[in-house]
Amino acid sequence: MPSKRNLIAVLALLLTFGVFTGCDTGSAVDDANLPAVQNISVAEAKALIDRNAVSADFIILDVRTPSEYAQGHIPGAVNLDYYASFEASLSAFDKTKTYLVYCRTGNRSASAARLMLDNGFAAIYNMQGGINAWISGGLPLET
């Protein structure tokens, strides 16, 4: 009869390989190729903006309120207020384009980026730290 230690080891291996959980460890789906929100720093966001400066397929999306946007925003940014029918307004945007999303501190933009992903947008970058980090980095604003 196998020892208790051996049985525990076998159970641990079976659970690891998904035998009892219904997991298919040999699945052809590669999670690395599934769309995901890319959280990036202000420096990475600036580089992304610079690389895509002339691309019609790149949108900078400011999800702050119109009054916050009017106080200063990243040059070329489009305003879509997260608090005002954000998800319903997404249908007006092309899901095949690349989006850089930001807000004041990064909280709203993280939620907005997740909603965009859930609504079929494939290329979404969330600028961590928001416009506050952008300003702290000495980067330009437009009013």
UniProtKB/TrEMBL annotation:
The entry lists its GO molecular-function terms as: thiosulfate-cyanide sulfurtransferase activity
Does the entry feature the keyword Signal, yes or no?
Answer: yes
Matching entries from InterPro entries are given as:
Rhodanese-like_dom (IPR001763), Rhodanese-like_dom_sf (IPR036873), Thiosulfate_ST/Rhodanese-like (IPR052367), Thiosulphate_STrfase_CS (IPR001307)
Q: Which residues form the signal peptide?
A: 1-21
Where the record annotates domain Rhodanese, the positions are 54-143
Q: Known CDD domains for this protein? A: RHOD
Its keywords, alphabetically, are:
Signal
> Pfam families under this entry?
Rhodanese (PF00581)
Superkingdom field: Bacteria
Q: Does the keyword Signal apply?
A: yes
Name of this protein: Rhodanese-like domain-containing protein
* Organism name: Dehalococcoides mccartyi
Question: What taxonomic lineage is listed for the species of origin?
Answer: Bacteria, Bacillati, Chloroflexota, Dehalococcoidia, Dehalococcoidales
